[in-house]
Amino acid sequence: MVLVAAATAAVLLPMSSVLAPYSLILLCEVLVFAIACMGMKLVFGTAGLLSFGHATFFAVSAYAGAFLCRFTPVDSFEVYLIFGLSFSVLLAIALGFLCVRATRIHFTILTLAFCQIVYSLFINGAVFDLFGGEGRAIYYVTEGSMYLPRLTLLGVQVGPHAFIPVFYNVIVVGFVAAAVLLWRIDGSPFGLALRAIRDNEVRAAAVGIRVRRYRWYAFILSGAFVALAGSLYGQLNRQITPDQLDWLFSAKLVLAVVLGGSRQFLGPILGAVLFVGLEEVALGWIVYHNAMLGVLLIAAVFLFPTGLARAVAAVVARLRPGTGGGR
Amino acid sequence: MPLLDISGVNTFRASAHVLRDVSLSVNDREVVCLVGRNGAGKTTTIESIMGLLPVKSGTIRFQDQDITGLPAHLRARLGIGYSPEDSGIFPDLTVAENLMISEWLVAEKAKDAGEAAVADTEARIYSVFPEVRSLTSRRGLNLSGGQKKMVAVARAMALLPSLLLLDEAFEGLAPVVVNRFRDAVNKIKDLGISILIAESNVVTASAVADRLYAIDRGEIIFHGRPDEALKNTEVMRTLRG
Question: Which fold is adopted by the domain A2-246?
Fold first, then answer.
């Protein structure tokens, strides 16, 4: 895995000097979205819990960091990241504690309900009111969005033109670190226990697995990775909007994981690539963008009914010498 | 003091009163069979002991500890291994992974208690079911019925239990495999593990049991040695329907 991670980093890192600015931003978005999808895969694909609440951790992480930078002299990306992550993880601990008490559709409804509660607190300005008159003023001007300055990276203020290529490296490090950690979790006894719970929670309890506790841990860990993606997204786009808090954003993560393959490690990564790619293609139809995206998603589902990761694995198996596949 | 002591247990499935004042016990290094027809209450008894069904009244004591209100995972960690009727193998996991979960939980428990983890778990499993060694890379989904039952018992053994609950361990197996399982039961007993088997075939049960309980319509109707059960025409008539 270390070799694969190093090879991935070796392929990705030089892209900042190879790709055109727009392509580089697109790649940044793919990697950030892939981190969020990998996080979602842990709770959905591995533990079998369909959450429509993970948008909360994604956006709250960026919002918390944005408020910190707006109302304190903090201008460090590292502080912004740690603060936002900590805030989201604490939220995941609390929400997860309540949500994992329910299972199946009831769990999903709880996550959806919590997500929409947080969304409404931002959309009606209640969160901004906590910061007094200035907070209220921001809410009126931005309609619930928060803007972020270019933060210092390891204490260095990077200029506007160099910022995206430099920040891209931070995203690559975050992506590779997240992938390695999640790979380790996936193959660990904890990961096996989650898969056992997903397959049959009653039998899992009967072999000694603390079903509710492990689900909670999975929820928190998953929330942390989605929050990491949220913080990176906030700094990449230099703004965070209520759109990322809406449950539809969680649905987008779920959709990408399903498209890629919810049970394969590469599934969420390939799903993120496919989803962002389809969105990009659909942008060619400005007026009918959403309808076109829908058509493309339907086509993707029919083309890869078991997920893109399985389709890729099948192609690789065919091309491998000695497996009897066509050349 | 018996290893497992159930006293006056009443269990409901939804509104149906299934177990009626069931009392039974399993002693150290003993094989006990609970025999009854389909729907008599065998699985409900096993699931009540395992904590998968809530007990309405009565007590369940294990190793002199009242476990009546304990959740299933804590009963497993206390040393009750369970092999369900449908084997309960996790289909997406390989056999090695199915076993690894239990071994990991044992290691975790030993670590919590400040003890060294038992290293010979796999040796114990393979001494009973050497066949499992060749199945380790196979996914649960791709096992035959007999293999699934073997792996289910092996997985329960990996938790280093003092008591094994085997629900319909011999059901649906070819006669040669049934003999294989009878040998396995004796080997497990030799390892110092007590066994409670829910079984519908009284002849098969009699071949392995030290003691036998017969259950019908949720009530224990007989308790004694297997040979006594076989001679009891009323019990045999009830069990054979």
Answer: ABC transporter involved in vitamin B12 uptake, BtuC (1.10.3470)
Q: What are the phi and psi torsion angles at A150 (to 5°)?
A: -75, 120
pLDDT value at position B118? Answer: 56
Question: What's the distance, CA A265 to chain centroid?
Answer: 15
Domain residue ranges in chain A: 2-246
> ∠ CA B210-B213-B218 to the nearest 5 degrees?
160
Whole-structure pTM value: 0.86
Q: Are B62 and B80 in contact (CB under 8 A)?
A: yes
CA B197 from chain centre, in angstroms, equals 5
Domain around B181? 4-240
Whether residue B73 and residue A205 make contact (CB cut-off 8 A), yes or no, is yes
Inter-chain residue contact B105 with A204, CB threshold 8 Å: no
* Nearest-CB residue to B92 (from A199, A204, A209): A199
Determine contact, residues B190/B108, Cβ cutoff 8 Å: no
Residues A19-44 have pLDDT tens digits of: 888 999 999 999 999 999 999 999 99
ipTM of the complex: 0.82
User: Which positions in chain A touch B167 (Cβ < 8 Å)?
Assistant: none
Q: Judge whether A42 and A182 are in contact, CB under 8 Å.
A: yes
Q: Which residues of A touch B101 (CB under 8 A)?
A: 189, 192-193, 196, 207, 209
Q: CA torsion angle for B108, A205, B88, A183 (degrees, to 10)?
A: -60
- Here the CATH number for the domain that contains residue B112 is 3.40.50.300
Q: What angle do CA A317, A321, A327 make, to 5 degrees?
A: 80
- Based on the structure, what is the number of domains in chain B? 1
Contact A192 B105 (CB under 8 A): no
Of B72, B101, B159, the CB nearest to A196: B101
Amino acid at B194: S
